[in-house]
Amino acid sequence: MEIDFVIPWVDGADERWRREMESYRPGGEMSDGAESRYRDWDNLRYWFRGVEAFAPWVRRVHFVTWGHLPEWLNVNHPGLHIVRHEDFIPREYLPVFSSHPIELAMHRIEGLADRFVYFNDDTFLLRPTSSGRFFRRGLPCDTARLGIIAPSTIAHIILNDVALINSRHDKRRAMRSHLCGWFNLRYAPSDMLKTLTLMPWSRFSGFRDSHMPQPFLRSTFERLWEQERATLEATMRRRFRNVLDCNQYLMRYEQLATGCFAPVPGRDCRLETLSEQSVERIASHIATQRYAMIAMNDSDAIEDFDGVKRQLNNAFEHILPHRSRYEL
After folding, report:
1. Is residue 157 a part of any domain in this protein?
2. Using one digit for the tens of pLDDT, what is the confidence trace for 83-124?
């Protein structure tokens, strides 16, 4: 199987980008332009080092950018494809300052493999990971577990995704058709118990979201764009995050609802929120390579940003001290 990685990145310190963003900032309308969405933790080089060291089987990395590039990036690396927004997002939707239109249009990236893994720039590989962790028998690996939508900054967006899935699929029929995907011996008993307790509901109440590198089939995007174009185009028109949006979770939920996935337990992943209180624990997870993958959500509550960043990047330097071929 040919498998690609896709990662979007923004340089929040780029003055040209900031001026353009400010000129389009929607003021009083519902949006999320929080500083933590855009600031740079200066650890992208460790993402690339992790890919080279821990996933050398990847065919190509598609690096999605507004136009700016890290000064250290080797753009001539044969496995690197620089993708600017105008290369795959229709002109009428540009410029965009939200990840959601970018995510929904990923399938339009020229040369993208039929199977790809989507990384946020806060998700990292920490130890050797085989291609079989992401795809088995041609199917994306995932954990199917029912859940509820908890209050959060993206709860409304997740609700939009789940509502659309419920309009497309009968929950009970979908789960009966792929019962082994929902109740699997690879899963933790607690996960299956939570799914079981939500079985009586006639509609999907939500799904467990891991915020980890997510494997996708390009055909999933193509099908939903063919069948739900009006809904997806509405998100594409919004330059900033909006509570009416859908996002790439929709594509994942479609794969789960159709049984188009291979069950994996997901115990090799860790989701954390960065703060002065959590950074020591997170740095330990990185330095000891306790998990195969880690996701680290930014937080506006961080007061000593430079101190937290330094402690975090020292841990990355401990396990990935050598420059990769993606670096000049």
Report:
1. yes
2. 999 999 999 999 999 999 999 999 999 999 999 999 999 999
Quote the DSSP letter at residue 324: P
pLDDT score, position 35: 59
Short-list 178, 153, 149, CA closest to 162: 149
Distance CA 326, CA 215 (A): 22
Closest CA to 210 of 141, 258, 130, 164: 141
In a domain, 33, yes or no: yes
Reference 62, options 32, 45, 39, 82; nearest CA is 82
CA distance linking residue 33 with residue 240, whole number of Å: 7
Query: How many domains would you assign to the chain?
Result: 1
- Integer-rounded Cα Rg, in Å, for the chain is 19
Percent of the chain with pLDDT over 70: 96
pLDDT tens readout for residues 55-92: 999 999 999 999 999 999 999 999 999 999 999 999 99
Question: Does residue 313 lie in a domain region?
Answer: yes
pTM for the whole structure:
0.95
Segments forming the whole domain that contains residue 214? 3-319
Calculate the alpha carbon distances from 123 to 93, 96, 213, 260, 294 in Å.
27, 22, 7, 23, 6
Q: Residue 242 corresponds to which tokens in the numbers above? A: 């909006």
Q: Report the phi/psi class of residue 211: left, alpha or beta, with left for phi > 0 and alpha for psi in -120 to 50.
A: left
- Show the 3-state SS of 38-97: CCCCCCHHHHHHHHHHHCCCCCEEEEEECCCCCCCECCCCCCEEEEEHHHHCCHHHCCCC
